[in-house]
Design brief:
The complex is a heterodimer of chains A (296) and B (311). With 296 residues, chain A is mainly alpha-helical. Chain A folds into two domains: 65 residues, no CATH class; 204 residues, MetI-like (MetI-like fold, Orthogonal Bundle). Chain A is 78% helix and 0% strand. Chain A is built from 15 helices and no strands. Chain A is globular. Chain B is globular. Chain B has a single domain, classed as MetI-like fold (Orthogonal Bundle). The relative contact order of chain B is 0.12. Chain B has 15 helices and two strands. Chain B has 311 residues and is mainly α. Classes of the chains: A mainly alpha (296), B mainly alpha (311). At the A-B interface, α1, α2, α5, α6 and α7 of A face α1, α2, α3, α6 and α7 of B.
Chain lengths: 296, 311
């Protein structure tokens, strides 16, 4: 909600800016850039350095040290990480788990949010806040019992268990955010649809879901990075290395190739690329996704 | 709470007599109940039920194989006497303060600097956001590379003539926690900046201009005019920071696993280690209960704020 209202305010602010901006231009001295250019470079330097390490050959690193600038260019780090290190397989696991978890949790949350926002369900505010509270709990309080439950359901050490756990834990937050959005949809649309004889299911499918696309997109961008980047649930639920998502697999890789920093760096970069793509393609949705639920 | 709900209700359908409302309440279609109950049951089963189980497990000694043996409050007594637990607790406090303080100072400064649109500002913002998309585990690995002896951090210190500060950052018990903290802050600042940028945008610009006309300096305007308007954001940032600090696990696990000599142990890493490395599931649950007890106040603060804005 707040993200959308903020988004709507932006054009106004820009529209009103010119007279002020002309007045302020002298204040916008080069100092901003003098400070920000080094800060930006410093900020990006860890990523740049890891990229440097990833494309250096093992001999170059061994001879001249990790901190040296690259004197060699070799993709052996990547090929080792992908082939022997199982990074490719782990990326596949991560993408599968993320896709299913995000789809399932958004679908379930959209249903719950629709029910809570458009129908007079008794105690709906309490239900909503309880669901949100579930998402705020420290995961540590869930780990041991969740591992035990997976065991007794016979889904321990499966990717399905990881998806289900991610869905269960995420639903509360997504429902809360979608509820805020759906509540703001104009009543007239619903009245009109109801007069046309549309039932609750059809209204949801043909009206509410299409209208909720912006907030669904924001949540999808956010949820994708969350699920993809998870480590603790994967380590709790999974034991077989072949099923590990990229985060857990990288930690193993780091143990196995302790001194081959080019392999570790290449694997880490490969793990960061999918979420970086999501970020650059959906930057606006991503940022507004971060703001939802904070209300100013 | 439901009283407040009743107050909101008439606004949903303005100018309508109360009669249709009653009709609507009576007719929640079956499908809608299914819509609500399926997700609710999933969350109850995978979140609330296990959470409840942790409390009873905390009162047992259990290795995960045999039956759990009830020991009453013994686990908590053991915790009180456990020096590693005490280190973890102190570290967690240091972490919350350092993590929150540093990311707010840097994030807020950057938000103020990059608040007004201009050339390159979008680029600067993107650069600061970028670490956010890197997972905490990968952030940990990135910074492991940075901190290696002979790695970029030490090399950079050498170049700027501070070679005497070089050390084995992650192996030195005195600085390891701080080194991990820096990596975590690097990733967090973008998020804090997003929150403050949104807060600054909703500040009333005319107030600041009026103060400027009255001769208030930039510093004074910031603390007297802007900061009070950011109270809401500050609250959210505070609650989020504490909740996050108590959850922090990935980055420490990726960088040090709590070492050297448990010097970077946080409650969450110690809990995980006890549960899944050592296999003391009852003892681990007791640590989880402590984490919960520390977090619950801030969770309620956050929820109360959300409940208010829901109106």
């Amino acid at each position: 909600m707040s993200a959308l209202t903020l988004g709507a305010q932006q054009p106004q602010a820009v529209g009103a800016a010119p007279p002020q901006r002309r007045r302020r231009r002298p204040a916008r001295s080069p100092w901003l850039h003098v400070v920000m250019v080094p800060v930006t470079l410093l900020w990006l330097s860890p990523i740049v350095f890891v990229a440097f390490v990833a494309v250096r050959s093992f001999d170059d690193i061994a001879a001249r040290g990790l901190g040296a600038l690259p004197a060699s260019f070799s993709l052996e780090g990547f090929s080792t990480a992908f082939a022997d290190g199982g990074v490719l397989r782990a990326l596949g696991n991560s993408i599968t788990v993320t896709a299913f978890a995000v789809l399932a949790s958004l679908a379930l949350s959209a249903c719950a949010a629709y029910a809570l926002s458009r129908f007079a369900i008794p105690g709906r505010r309490t239900i909503l806040l309880t669901m949100l509270a579930g998402n705020l709990l420290p995961p540590q309080i869930l780990l041991v019992p969740v591992a035990a439950i997976c065991e007794s359901l016979g889904i321990a050490d499966t990717r399905l268990a990881l998806v289900v756990v991610q869905v269960g834990f995420g639903i509360g937050f997504y429902t809360f955010v979608l509820h805020g959005f759906m509540r703001g949809l104009p009543v007239e649309v619903f009245e009109a649809a109801r007069l046309d004889g549309a039932g609750a299911g059809r209204i949801f499918w043909q009206i509410v879901l299409p209208l909720s696309r912006p907030s669904l997109a924001a949540l999808a961008a956010l949820a994708t990075t969350w699920v993809f980047n998870d480590l603790i649930w994967a380590m709790t639920v999974l034991r077989t290395e072949a099923k590990f998502p990229i985060t857990a697999a990288l930690l193993n890789l780091q143990g196995g190739y302790a001194s081959a920093w080019n392999v570790v760096a290449a694997g880490s970069l490969a793990a960061a690329v999918p979420t970086a793509i999501v970020f650059f393609v959906f930057q606006k949705q991503f940022v507004s996704g971060l703001l939802v639920g904070t209300n100013k | 709470m439901s009283a407040a709900l009743a107050d909101v209700e008439p606004e949903v359908a303005p100018g309508r007599p109360p009669e249709p409302r009653r009709r609507r309440r009576g007719r929640v279609p079956l499908l809608v109940w299914v819509f609500l109950l399926v997700p609710l049951v999933v969350e109850l089963f995978w979140v609330f039920w296990p959470a409840g189980n942790s409390f009873s497990l905390a009162l047992t000694r259990w290795d995960g194989i045999g039956a759990a043996e009830p020991v009453g409050l013994q686990n908590f007594l053991d915790l009180a006497a456990d020096p590693i637990f005490r280190t973890a607790l102190v570290n967690n406090v240091v972490w919350a303060v350092g993590f929150g303080g540093l990311s707010v100072v840097v994030g807020l400064s950057l938000a103020v600097a990059l608040n007004k649109p201009g050339p390159l500002v979008g680029l600067y913002r993107s650069a600061i956001y970028l670490p956010m998309v890197v997972s905490l585990a990968v952030t940990g690995l990135f910074w492991r590379v940075m901190y290696q002896p002979g790695g970029p951090v030490n090399a950079a210190l050498e170049v700027v003539g501070l070679g005497s500060l070089q050390r084995q950052w992650l192996a030195d018990p005195e600085v390891a926690l701080g080194a991990v903290l820096v990596a975590a802050v690097w990733r967090q600042v973008g998020y804090i900046m997003v929150l403050y940028l949104a807060g600054l945008k909703s500040c009333d610009a005319t107030l600041e201009e009026a103060a400027a006309v009255d001769g208030a300096g930039a510093w004074q305007r910031f603390w007297r005019i802007v900061m009070p308007q950011l109270r809401g954001v500050n609250m959210v940032v505070f609650a989020v920071t504490v909740i996050d600090s108590l959850r922090t696990f990935d980055i420490v696990w990726a960088m040090t696993r709590g070492g050297p000599y448990n010097e970077t142990q946080l409650l969450s890493t110690y809990m995980f280690q006890q549960a899944f490395t050592t296999g003391n599931l009852g003892y681990a649950s007791a640590i989880a209960v402590v984490i919960f007890a520390l977090a619950i106040g801030f969770i309620i603060t956050y929820l109360a704020r959300q409940a208010r804005t829901e109106d």
